[in-house]
Amino acid sequence: MKNTLEPAPNKTVNPERWKIGNLLFSQKTAPYLFIAPFVLSFLLFFLYPITNSVIMSFQEILPGERTFIGLENYSRLLNDHFYRALYNTTIYTLLTLIILIPIPLVLAVILNSKLTFARNFFKSALFIPALTSTVIAGVIFRLMFGQQDSALMNSLLIQLGFSPLQWTNNAYTAMFLMVALASWKWIGINILYFLAALQSISKDLYEAAAIDGAGPWTQFRRITLPLLKPVTVFVVTISIIGGIRMFEESYIFWGASSPADIGLTLSVYLYQQGFDYFDLGFGAAIGLVILFITLVFNLIQWKFFGLFKKEED
Amino acid sequence: MDDRQSKGGKRLFQIGSLLLLAVFTFLALFPFYALLLASFKPVTELLRFGLNLKLQPELLSWDNYRYLFSDAAQKYLTWYKNSVLVTALATLITLFFSSMVGYALAIYQFRGKNVILTLILVMLMVPGEILLLPLFEQTIALGLIDTYWGVILPAAVAPFVVFFFRQYALGLPRELLDAARIDGCSEFGIFFRIMAPLMAPAFGAMGILTALGAWNNFMWPLIVLRSEEMYTLPIGLYGLLTPYGNNYNILISGSVLTILPIIILFLFFQRFFISGMTLGGVKQ
Fold first, then answer.
1. Could you tell me how many helices (H) and strands (E) chain A has, helices first?
2. Closest residue to A115, CB basis, from B1, B21, B49
3. Beta-carbon pairs below 8 A across chains A and B
4. For the domain with range A75-305, which CATH number is right: 3.30.1360.120, 1.10.3210.10, 1.10.3720.10, 1.20.1260.10?
5. pLDDT at residue number A25
6. Are the Cβ atoms of B101 and A255 closer than 8 angstroms?
7. pTM of this prediction?
């Protein structure tokens, strides 16, 4: 099982041609040497661990001892922590989608218009949060959302006539913190994706539409939106993957265990079980659930966008 | 948005969009101001009252930064050095291998090429979490736990970077290939001496993106790195965040100095950041 360090598949060469000079000059063998690092890394750091992950999920793993236990890890998933993690992950993913698709799209359209002032300044400014690590973003957010009455957000609440909140101790504010952090960090990146797609739309289309008497709103609805479909599908896809595998936004506020699981997500659950409790088999089962849910979410999305229909519209 | 719009409509669009952009720009940048302000305040003040926007000039000082460079905060400088080292190594290695793979996928016709392209897309679609536990076991088995290689090697051939280089290499002039072959250049010579320099913008974009990713990387180093003197900045800073904030003086000024170089780099090399983000995803 451990021996996956096989050479890359370039075995078709005759023994007498195995001279290094020939290899480097031959157009037949060179591509295989070029891709050898990928093949090696794929086998060692992807295929082997994935296979192992599936096997591990059917095992009970103790130091130096692995026992096959069938579906027991999966049946153990039916517990309140897991349901909570599943619930939090789903809500988090949906909320980030609701925020991180339409808002960046609108901002990108605005930034793409020649009428807008200081476009480059705004583009850069909106992108800067994407440069921070989640840890540093977490430092900032924890300071701003401190528990003290005088801390930034609480003092704002008090001034507006509300009572201060224990931000990291309540299920709703916990979700708010995670979604706010993710939205802050990702908005600029999604703007860039939409902006790049907008810039590749031909100006002629808009001119032709204008001649036909289409106003800006009709142009947006009939030209911009349909032509943005591929990039939208792409952004939704990566947002779904990012949402379901979310770990850092929760981990920086609560570590691996939060009060009443308010910050528990599937990835945090995996980390907690795998690395804090060393329950590797159970952790592997959680990993496969993450993979499965990602696929289901994306299949629904692709169906929604009509990706499985062939060339109609 | 076109010429036929009335003057009033244009004006309204301009004012509305400016307002909207101003609001979002404020939301994007304000947290940095809050961090910067906190970094100049005494820790005791932060612990008692939390971060607030009272300026209180008499409280502001460079003390936290001075502390950062004193012997007491030696570990911060060690983490900084580690982060620079890991980022540089990871970037060089990822660029070296991924550019070769991407180039070969664009330039050569060979059996198995489509299989590899499919595998790359599959790798992009699979959430890395399911690899975490088996990779952890593997890292232990290979003796790479608590080493920089354990952090760097699993990501040495990054599917996204390979994909980006392939897209870029598709546009390289093929005539150069034949000319170089006639001149007796080896296939590797062609890549390193002729094609790689032509891909400089791709190296720029992917270099910056990979470096940013490595600099900010958290989850995998958190698992691999075990001893404090091996920590990178995100892991070290995270450790300071949790134990009841008694290290806030390093944490906050340390966070400023962790993000500042990246922002400066970004302002200089915006073009590369932006092309790195966009090309791979959109042009398909």
1. 17, 2
2. B1
3. 297
4. 1.10.3720.10
5. 65
6. no
7. 0.89
